[in-house]
Amino acid sequence: MEKFDVTIIGSGPGGYVAAIRCAQLGMKTALIEKYESLGGTCLNVGCIPSKAMLDSSEHFYNATHHFKDHGIKINTPEVDLIQMVARKADVVKTTVAGVSYLMKKNKVTVFTGHGSFLTKNKIEITKADGTKQEVESDKIIIATGSKPASLPGIEIDKKRIITSTEALVLKEVPKHLVIIGGGVIGLELGSVYARLGSKITVVEYADRIVAGMDRAIIKELQRVLEKDLDFKFLLSHKVTSAKNSGNEIVVIAKNAKDESIEIKGDYCLMAVGRRPYTDNLGIDKSGVKSDSKGKIETNEKLQTNIENIYAIGDVIKGAMLAHKAMEEGVLVAEIIAGQKPHINYNLIPGVIYTWPEVASLGLTEEQLKENGQKFKVGMFPFKASGRAKASGDTDGFVKVLAHETTDEILGVHMIGPRAADMIAEAVVAMEYRASAEDVGRMSHAHPTFTESFREACLDATGKRPIHI
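Structure (tokenized):
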């Protein structure tokens, strides 16, 4: 039986990053992955392929809606979904190959098969052909991620009633895609197919989409999706059933008045969130505790109740984000090595890759009010940005929340072009506890989208922004 210093179960962003960092710190490291390709959900059927499809569909949408505004005349473009999906698959293949290269470069031993605990130090690996082998490890990191959740009584047949995984490999553009759940996954994949010509209906139980993000930002996102992509939102609707009747799906939902309504389409995307994936992991044999929802319980060091076993990413509490899992992978590796790293969970950004993009960091206005914190608000619209005017991306705004007396930035919320990239400046500022005036006094290249963040900070200080 081969023995390792650290063994990681799961090769998603958290797992493979943990493996690299452990190896960098001199530990003999093993990585166990159930599937043939490394990278987990994110690289194979999540973050990377969905962004590839979002970019492809955005190119098509621009060609059909905006090229003529820029003085570009072309024949009427057509969607080649097969090629679009093939390109997406090539992006995934290249990215996965990159992770495999990194494992070899860092001398991480990779085992392919389903890993499950035999004891707190021993793991059994079951290969696809049924053969088994065991490894022993001083430390073990659980990084098995999550899988799509569903609703009671609804069968996901993977044909007409699908998850995000199947939505990335459809062979036709849906005529009417009904999305159950108004969260990030549903809105991103809905954007893909809306741009390609699908009618989109989002059925959401709550009275708003994307719960948890700044309400003003999300209200603007809903407005833009309705305006530009003709999304239809049925909020405060509880789905009671979804059935496949051949070439049609029928979704039944109850509205706030408890009246039943029927929504028909040709595909139904189940996007009601994700649940921790610990199936057949054998955590009972290890002694590790989990809660009623399957989340593994950890302390501030991400250590479970069993001292040598850690857990990171989607299997523990907190936002299910790839970059959160990556940070946790590094944190655990460094803790095992005797270092004292930390993560400020308040400063892990949330992003929605629609267009315009949405990015959120720190506390929302609603949270500050609940906490009784007095604050100032700074706003700057992209319609006043020279760079946004030049590119034709004038929807949205930047919102900065700062402490009323100290002027420290407490939250930054954006909806606009390249918000996913712009939020990084806010992360740096808030990690160093910058004030709104600090950012307002920093030079930003002109013309750029990031000037809007500076202008919003100027507004928060009480000084008038320059360009409005």
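The mean pLDDT is 97. The CA atoms of residues 254 and 450 lie 43 Å apart.
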